[in-house]
Amino acid sequence: MTKKDLPVTRIEILQGTLDLIILQTLRWGPRHGYGIAQMIRAGSRDVLQVDTGSLYPALHRLERQGAVAADWEVSENNQRVRVYRLTAAGRKQLAAERSKWDQLAVAIAGLMVPPAESEP
Amino acid sequence: MKLSALLPSGRRRREEELDEELAAHLRMAEAERVARGESPADAAANASREFGNMGLIKQITREMWGSLWLDRLSQDLRFGLRMLRRSPGFSILAIFCLTLGIGANTAVYSWIEGILVRPYALVADQDRMVVLVGKTRGEPGHDGLSWPDFLDLRRSNKFFEAFVADKITGTTLAVGDRAERVAGQIVSANYFEEIGVRPFLGRGFESAEETGRNAHPVVVIGYKMWRDRFRGDLGILGKTQLMNGVRHTIIGVAPEGFNGTFVGYAMQFWVPASMQETFDLGGYKLEDRGARWVESFGKLKPGVTRAQAQAEISAAARRLEAEYPETDRGREVELSPLWRSPFNGASRMYPTLRIAAVVAFFVLLIASANVSNLLLVRAFARRQEMTIRLAVGSGRGRLVRQLVTEGLILSALAAAGGLLVAHFGRNLLVRVIPSRGVTLNLPASIDWRVLAISAAACLATTLLSGLVPAIPASKIDLASSIKSETGGVVGGSERSRVRSGLVLLQVSLSFVLLVAAGLLVKSLQAMRSASPGFSTADVLLAGIDLNSAGYDAPRKETFQNELLDRVQSLGGVRSAAYARVAPFSYANYNSSPIVIEGYAAAPDEQPAPQYDEVSPAFFATLGIPILSGRAFTRADDESAPPVAVVNEAMAARYWSRSSPLGGILHLKGRAVRVVGIAKMANYASLLEIPKPFFYVPLRQFPAGVVVLHIRTNLRRATIASALAREIHGLDPGLAPWRLSTMREQIDIKSEAQIVALTLVGIFGGLALVLSAVGLYGVMSYAVSQSHRELGLRMALGAAASDLLRLVMRYGVLLTAAGVFLGMVAAIGSTRLLGNLLYQVSPRDPLVFGSAFLVMAIASFAACLLPAWRAARTDPARALRDR
Fold first, then answer.
1. Which residue of B392, B398, B481, B494 to mutate against A (max A Cβ within 10 Å)?
2. Any alpha helices (H) in B183-275, and if so which ranges?
3. What angle do CA B111, B114, B117 make, to 5 degrees?
4. CA of B562: how far to CAs of B556, B557, B565, B567, B692, in Å?
5. Cα(B809)–Cα(B832) distance, rounded to whole angstroms?
6. Residue B17: closest CA among chain A residues belongs to which residue?
């Protein structure tokens, strides 16, 4: 089965873009998993909801890839939390993913605005 | 990744950290909901619902860690075990099928190991042992070596570490009313030393003890004899035992579990070669280069190949041939591996076990196909789980690994069960083989090699049963999996095709096994009804061993004549006669080089047909017709000139142009006149090639161990007690061997067929059941998957009988295709049965037809229930369900 045959599903898009969104969120400073989820939700004005079943596997995968690092800290309400921060490699990856995303966004935007002459 | 994560302790900490991380997430979500004004209870419930399936999230997150394979394996194993526990019916069925498959293989291999590869318990370096087989150039068959030749071979060679003689012999020990026959070996003095067996008490033989005619009456007895007969007497050394009329000093007791170097019987005593004349009948042979009685083996030096050793021994044989042309003309020595030794049961068991190995492998294939089928069904049921895993980026490789792990768990459990099956089946062969009054020894041996084979069978099964369903599972299409499987025409989807293929394989393999079993049944029937050339009904046999009782020649003669007279005058006895060797027994006929007057032997030909020593009524008792001339009479005694009766083959071979009657042959220095021609008969087995054979009168060629043949209508028990009474009347210390019928004697020689039939029969039955289960599974699955289609057909006016026919047609098609493949395979492979078949063509149409019928009935039964269920489809329900 080739990628081309694969109809784009919601889950598929999330998997592709989730890394970008997480890395982007961490640009503003270290954050724990719940914080990241809240921030994505707030930042997208409740349009994007990150499923915990996708978020934590993604965080742990990024950690293994070296894009983020994690440390245990004590939160404001005295709770031990695992805090993720961007590493140098993560910054590089973010830049690369961003430029890919920008290209994709422009391309899709182009497709979404149909040429005027095709209108009846 | 930190190194600590690789270690089990680091791993555990990481798991705890993950628990803590996710728990913290949940608490923060709860706290925020409470802050927004939800009640604490609602907040907890909502946060938990929003969070999702905690267990699955943990599982998938852990998969991202990409840790050590061992770690992942244990994870897969735990998950696999959970999956198997969740569907116990499936698991038990699968493990059961595989246990049968792996157990069959383990059992067969443990027999091969214990009987063919390392047949001699406690004996060291068996992989370096080769059997020395004597041959005459251009002649079929084999014999032993002469003692002088054996000594000469032993003297000069560089590839052998040792030459060891181990000729089988026997003696009779009286136990109450019945004599017990025990087997032993005449061995060279280096025997115990070279096989690495230390006597448990006392010593082995010293080199001086193998020389001098009857000079060293010493014996090493077996552990069992020491325990049972001598009640475990620790002070036994130095005590004596009368054996074959000679007092033997017991110098040693073999260790427990040591049964000698022979396949078939458990040896219970060992005497040195110097005692040959006492134990090996036919006179003193230690200085006779023409007497080929020595059965022996050589021990190769480490690293020497059989081919190198063969070249050396052939050169030595050629030197002997040049030096002693009188006796060694045309003589060759062939080195044979232990499993092809012609001197013991190995050569008879080899073809049978080879077939059993093939058949057991078939059963394993069939069982694996069944488990594949079961796993396929489950793979479908677990489609959703697989889809989620793929969606979050689990590799397809991982999915396959998980399925293979589950297969591994199943087959590992089954392999353990298989070892149990093999353990309990280890004595099966001894039970199947007709008893003949001597302790049988055909041990299975479960050692590390057998464990390795069983592990290999387990891995093969895992791959077969785990990978086949993994292929379609790994092809799950994310998009289409969201849509439901539509379940097309019965048996139409791709998965169904895989499953149908597996069933096809099962049906065809089962068919082959059924054909094999059928051919063996027919062979056995043919053997039962075949005439061996003498009468098999109403003849009873009893061995009488006067040698063991220590009779001298004149006393033997008197006793034998008296006893025969007494038996003949018993009411109900029609006739009675002696023969030194009874037909079809394991005792060997004598054979000796003979010279035939008027027959010019080719330069390297040495006529040496076998012969039997019989009393006058022998031909009448066994019903062997004398075609011309006469049978022996009472007048052919020690004072009359020696005479012989030859068989048809002998007459044709050596007197092709004239009548043999009146012809002279020279046997052991005596001129023997031919007085009659006997009709051909079988002498040792139904499968033998007709060969020259002759008879001489027992009184002219006396023997101490004879078999009394009694023709009577009386029951065996009646004769047995009458015979014991008569013998006791002559000598209270003497007893006959166990009485057997001629029929039993002949059946003993069909043991290879009986064993093969038992094994093929058991395995064929297993295969049939497994295939029927497989077919049933596929049919039921097909019916349940096309529930909707069946409902639709019914709604459109199909009658129940139409649906029944539709489903049955599918089953019949599968069966027919399987049987066709099986038939092709069977035609190509039944020739493997080769020697085991007796007067049956490997393509016997009746057998093929019967196998087809059995297969058809089994398939029909397997399809009936699913078809019946299809016919009862409720159209309204079926259409609503999806």
1. B392
2. 191-195, 223-228
3. 105
4. 10, 9, 5, 9, 33
5. 34
6. A82
Asked if residue B609 lies in contact with residue B136, where contact means CB atoms within 8 angstroms, the answer is no
Residue A57 contacts B, CB cutoff 8 Å = yes
A90-114 per-position pLDDT tens digit: 999 899 888 888 888 888 888 877 6
The answer to whether the CB atoms of B24 and A79 lie below 8 A apart is: yes
Rounded Cα–Cα distance for residues B374 and B377 (Å): 5
Put simply, the answer to whether A34 touches B17 (Cβ < 8 Å) is: no
Cβ-Cβ contacts under 8 Å for B581 (sequence gap 6 or more): B587, B588, B589, B590, B612, B613, B707
Closest by CA to B484, choosing from B830, B839, B882, is B882
Q: Which two tokens stand for residue B695?
A: 């008879």
Q: What is the ipTM of this complex?
A: 0.81
Distance CA(B424)–CA(B442), nearest Å, equals 14
B620 φ, ψ (degrees, to nearest 5): -70, -40
Give the nearest partner residue to B61 out of A9, A11, A60, using CB atoms.
A60
pTM for the predicted model, two decimal places: 0.69
Question: Could you give the CA distance from residue B506 to residue B848 in angstroms, rounded to a whole number?
Answer: 17
Q: How far is CA B310 from the centre of its chain?
A: 29
Nearest-neighbour CA in chain B from A78: distance (Å): 11
Q: Name the token pair of B496.
A: 């169904």
* B635-657: pLDDT as tens digits: 998 899 999 999 999 999 999 88
Nearest to B727 by CA among B342, B333, B290, B174: B174
Determine the pLDDT at residue B489: 44
Cβ separation A64–B25 shorter than 8 A: no
From chain B, pick out residues whose CB is under 8 angstroms from the CB of A82: 17, 20-21, 24
Distance CA B578, CA B701 (A): 12
Alpha-carbon distance B467 to B460, whole Å? 10
Chain A residues with CB inside 8 Å of B32's CB?
Answer: 38
- The reported pLDDT for the residue numbered B698 is 93
**Rounded-to-integer distance, Cα B424 and Cα B83, Å:** 31
Alpha-carbon gap, residue B273 to B269, rounded angstroms = 13
Residue B358 CA, distance from chain mean position: 11
Choose among A34, A58, A60: nearest Cβ to B25.
A34
Tokens representing B25 are: 């997430």
Q: Say which of B56, B66, B393 has its CB closest to residue A15.
A: B393
B71 to chain A, closest Cα gap in Å = 16
pLDDT of residue B484: 41
Contacts of A34 in chain B (CB under 8 A): 24-25, 28-29
Chain A nearest-CA distance from B74, in A, is: 20
A111 Cα to chain B: minimum distance (Å): 23
Residue B13 near residue B4, CB atoms below 8 Å: yes
Distance (Å) from the alpha carbon of A71 to chain B's nearest alpha carbon: 11
Give the one of B22, B32, B393 whose C-beta lies nearest to A56's C-beta. B22
Are B85 and B404 a contacting pair, CB within 8 Å?
no
Residue ranges in chain B whose pLDDT is less than 50: 1-6, 478-491, 882
Give the pLDDT of residue B470.
65
Tell whether B27 is within 8 A of chain A (Cβ).
yes
Other residues' Cβ atoms within 10 Å of the Cβ of residue B522: 19
Instruction: List helix spans (H) across B87-190.
Output: 88-111, 147-155
Residue pair B352/B756 in contact by the 8 Å Cβ criterion: yes
Nearest CA in chain A to B479: A7
Question: With 0-12 CB in 10 A as exposed, 13-18 as middle and 19+ as buried, what is B834?
Answer: exposed
Chain A residues in contact with B22 by the CB 8 A cut-off are 52, 56
Distance of CA B362 to the CA centre of its chain: 16
Report the candidate in B64, B61, B29, B42 with the shortest Cα–Cα distance to residue A34: B29
